[in-house]
Amino acid sequence: MGTTQLESVPEPKYWHLKTVIGEALDSDFAVGEILPNERDLAARFGVARATLRQALEQLELEGRLQRRRGVGTTVAPPRMGVDVSTTQHSWPGSAQDAWQSVDCATAVPPAAVARLLETGAEEETHILRRLRVSHGQQVAAELLYVPASTVPELSAIDAPSGPARSRAVLRELQRLDLDGQDRAVELGSARADDAKELDRLPGSPVLLVTTRYVSEGRTAAVSVATYRADTCRLTFGDSGDVEISHDQERRAS
After folding, report:
1. What is the pairing mode between strands 232-235 and 137-147?
2. Domains of the chain, with CATH numbers?
3. Residue 221, Cβ neighbours under 10 Å: how many?
4. Average pLDDT over every residue of 65-82
5. What is the mean pLDDT of residues 70-76?
């Protein structure tokens, strides 16, 4: 295949290159196919490798490419829809919950979480670590912060630590009346622990979903969930998913 030269355009060169490579991904490559090395790609498109890297990084951010350890850069499959709607008016651990408990520890939460919980700066909370699996793939990792005052009946003797402790905390939450949930979504970077569990490189783009659970007029728990930005698109509400292609949006039938 011949060299593709870029036309002179007012937008940044890497951004125009991103569009050109995106079109090539649709026409010349299959899902899962490994891209040529940077030298060959730069020669193909007639650009410097620094410009190429910027374009590839943007395509990875948009979920078009994946960087896989020991493999290289591959064409990503379409993002899977993951429901994070608040219409499921239920506590974590309910029958509709899609998360799997991994561990539970007691520690002082980060300052930002402590402010949401309205707890003292040095007050320890139960910190549950959970994973979400979709289509056989781990798509998200969660830290669920539950103050001891929220679950005062929890017995350390029955469940001293680990997944059993996590399940015990979740059972206690079910005893409370849930007034509602507040939820926020923002773009972030994968921490080392989350990156390892989600098979991503540290610093990779992720979607952070923070949920505040309210009971009896106060914050009873806070969830900070880290979703893979390259494979997930978050869906809200119960009106049906929206299929997204690279040139159109249409309501799924």
Report:
1. unpaired
2. 13-75 (1.10.10.10), 80-251 (3.40.1410.10)
3. 28
4. 79
5. 85
Pairwise CA distance, residues 29 & 81, whole Å: 23
- Residue-wise pLDDT for 169-212, tens only, equals 999 999 999 998 888 888 888 888 888 888 877 887 788 999 99
**Distance from CA of residue 48 to its chain's centroid?**
32
Sign of the four-CA dihedral 156, 157, 162, 166: negative
CA–CA gap between residue 87 and residue 240 (Å, rounded): 12
DSSP letters of 48-80?
Answer: -HHHHHHHHHHHHHTTSEEEETTTEEEEPPPPE
pLDDT digits (tens, 9 = 90+) for 116-153: 998 887 888 999 999 988 777 788 999 999 999 999 88
Count of residues in the chain:
253
